[in-house]
Write a structure and sequence with these properties.
It is a single chain. By secondary structure, this protein is mainly alpha-helical. The chain is built from 5 helices and no strands. It has helices spanning about 1-15, 15-40, 45-65, 70-80, 105-150. The chain is rod-shaped, with a radius of gyration of 25 Å. The relative contact order is 0.14.
C-alpha cells in the first residue's frame, strides 16, 4: 500500500523524491522475487524430500497401528489419487474407492511438485516483468520531470 502511495502521489504531484522512493521499493521487491525464485528452484529437491518424508511417516504409523487409522494418509491418497508405495495391499483401507489402477504415492508427490513449481515460476516471471515495467516508467517520469524543471 505504501509503494502504491509513493507511485501515485509521486506522479500526481510530480515529485522526484516520491518517484525515487517508488523506484527503490520496486527494486527491493524485484530483488526479493528473484531471490525467492532462485531458492524455490534450487530447493525443489528438498521440498520433494520433505513431503515424501511426511508421507513415509504417516505410512509407517498406519502400518504400526492400523486400527487407529490415519487421517494424514487418507488425505494424501484422496488429494493425489494414489495408494501406497510399491503395493497398495498394506494400506488398501485408506485408498480412494474410485481408483482403477495402483499409483505410487511417492512418484505422484514428485510429479505434483514438479508441475506446480513450473506454474509458480511462470507467475513469478510475469510479476517480475510487471515490476520491471513499473521501474522503467517511474524512472522515465522522474527524468521527464527533471528535464521539464531544468527548462523553466
Amino acid at each position: 500500500m505504501t509503494v502504491g502511495f509513493f507511485g501515485c502521489c509521486g506522479a500526481a504531484r510530480e515529485s522526484q523524491c516520491l518517484l525515487g522512493a517508488f523506484f527503490t521499493c520496486l527494486l527491493v521487491i524485484f530483488a526479493a522475487e528473484v531471490t525467492a525464485g532462485v531458492f524455490a528452484f534450487i530447493g525443489k529437491k528438498a521440498a520433494v524430500d520433505e513431503v515424501q518424508a511426511i508421507y513415509n511417516e504417516a505410512y509407517d504409523n498406519y502400518l504400526k497401528d492400523a486400527e487407529k487409522g490415519n487421517k494424514t494418509l487418507i488425505q494424501f491418497h484422496d488429494a493425489l489419487q494414489c495408494c501406497g508405495k510399491e503395493s497398495d495391499v498394506p494400506v488398501k483401507a485408506t485408498c480412494p474407492k474410485d481408483i482403477q489402477e495402483h499409483k505410487n504415492c511417492l512418484e505422484e508427490i514428485q510429479s505434483l511438485i514438479d508441475s506446480k513449481l513450473h506454474l509458480v515460476g511462470i507467475v513469478g516471471i510475469a510479476i517480475a516483468g510487471i515490476t520491471i515495467f513499473g521501474m522503467i516508467f517511474s524512472m522515465v517520469l522522474c527524468c521527464a520531470i527533471r528535464n521539464t524543471r531544468d527548462m523553466l
